[in-house]
Amino acid sequence: MLRNGSAWQGGLSVGDEILAVDGVRVTDDPNKLLTSRAVGSTVKFLVNRDGQVKEVSFPLLAATARRYRIERQANPSAEQQTVLAKWLPVRR
Q1: Which of 35, 27, 16 has the alpha carbon at shortest distance from 7?
Q2: pTM of the prediction?
Q3: Considering only CA atoms, which of 40, 48, 1, 61 is closest in space to residue 20?
Q4: What's the pLDDT band for 53 if we cut at 50, 70, 90?
Q5: What is the mean pLDDT of the chain?
Q6: What does each C-alpha distance from 77 to 10, 64, 84 come to in angstroms?
Q7: CA angle in degrees (0–180, nearest 5) for 34-49-56
Q8: Is the predicted pLDDT of residue 20 greater than 90, yes or no?
């Protein structure tokens, strides 16, 4: 769950067990049930929170995913080489 994302703003908690999305039982990743939903559409979650079943509804916000890219530098410093080796170890 992302801070300020749809779920967080809508009232879902980190420990909630998602049981159903719009009446469809969750048996796998609940995100798969949301991919076809339009931004702004209201989604209803049935969750188990601390042993109690609760319904939580909220509108979907636009995704705010971040993407990162690691690039090799032409002349990396020793420190940059150390960091790169930790992130992307060379396999032999």
Answers
A1: 16
A2: 0.61
A3: 48
A4: very high
A5: 83
A6: 46, 33, 11
A7: 45
A8: yes
